Each structure stands twice: as structure tokens, then as C-alpha cells.
Amino acid sequence: MMDPSVDFQRRLAEHRPWLLRQARWRLGVQASAAEDVVQETLVAAWVGVESLRGDVTRGWLAGILRHKVVDHWRRVPASDVDPCPTCGEDPFDETDHWREPVADWGDPEEALHTEGFWKVLELCARILPERMYRVFVLREVEEMDVVSICRELSLSESNCHVLLHRARLRLRGCVGEKWGRS
Amino acid sequence: MRGREMGSFVKQPFGIVHCRQASELLSRAREEKLSPGERVALTLHLAMCVHCRRYGRQIKLLGRAFRAAIEGSNPEGTSGL
Known about the structure:
heterodimer; B: mainly alpha; disordered C terminus
């Protein structure tokens, strides 16, 4: 029988900074809720220690965090405040062509291994309105299908598609502006 | 046809899409299978348009990057948020 000792608490606490980063990425513009969500995650981990076989792993904690973020979303409705109203401008002209050329980002592998790219991504994650970001995360990170996302967030299917499309346009525009080169 | 839900697709004559509609199709193709007509229209557009080809690659990369960031596997993650 494992003794949920001080040692276990200490080991949990060591993962706190990492969990906070994960929570902030998941929450986007609502990153200020990360502290609370991580606190709930650590409490749940503490309670769940008996079901844990072996050591505390990031994978185990990340699984708890995922659920806590979804719980948080269920509790706190998405705000419709747009953190960047000018970012929502139509990127296409009246003839339906791109207003600005879509710049080349170079080699994707290189981008993913460049610190600058992650910094830009981090900034750009914060310019998405909350509902848009939630839909994007559930789709691209959790890989949920659109029907399940609609059910989870009480959206119509067409609204879901529109939000995903806008999220991508906005993220790409933001990253492109700061990262792309022509 | 599913395309009508996105608004502008059906405003174009069949088979001809511009960047606005192509970007909608590229996005929706990440969620579900496009209709044969939509696929033809998109393929034709992409053959001619480097901007939309880049757009398609970039939204794919963004999906990958967020997955890596959130799953904590990004190499630079320690300096993240």
C-alpha cells in the first residue's frame, strides 16, 4: 500500500510549473484561470493516488488536467469578447482573392524547432476569442469530431465550421505576420 | 450540398472557386470529406494558386504545433507561456 506521504506531495509539486504551462496553452485568452485549473488537477491527483500504479508521470497528470479544463469550460461559459477586434478583418478583397500575399514559412520542421516560432504561436493563441479557441483546441488537439464538439459547446454544426475556419484564418494571419517571410 | 453552410461557395459557378472559397474548403477538408464537386474545384484552384497551397500547408502545421505545444512535446516548451 502506497503511503500518500509528504514525498508524494513534493513530487506532485515538482510538476506544477509544467502543468501551468500546459493549462495556459489549453486556455488561450483565458490563461488567467490556469492557476485554479492546476490546483484542481493537483487535488484530483492527490485523491487519485491510490489508482496510480508506479510513479507520478506527466502523462497521468496531463490526463487529469484535460478533464479539469473541460470541467472549467462547462462551468464558465465562453466570453464573446474579442481580444483583438482588428484581427477579425476580412483577409480577402471584393474579388475573393487574398488581400496580402500568403508568405512562405519555409521548412515546417525547422519552424517547429525554432524558439521564435513557439513564442509567436504563444502570442497568437491569445488573440482568439474564447469560443473560437475552445473549438479549435477540441478539434485540432483533442481531435474530436465536429458533431461531438457542437454537443459539448452547444453550437450548431455550421457555426462550428465557421468558427474553425475563422480560427485558422486568424491564427495563420497572426503567425504569418510575425513569422512568415515573403 | 454541405458547402452552402459556409456561405460563399455556391455563389460561384460550379467548379470555379477563388481564394475565399478555397480557404473555406481547405479548412473544412480537415474536418470531413468534401463532396466530389468540391474536391475538383479545390484541386483546380490549388493547381493555379501558390497562396492557397501555402495556406493549406500552414493550417496543417498550426494544428500540429498546437498538438505538440499542449501535449508538451515541443522542444522549446520550457520557454513557452
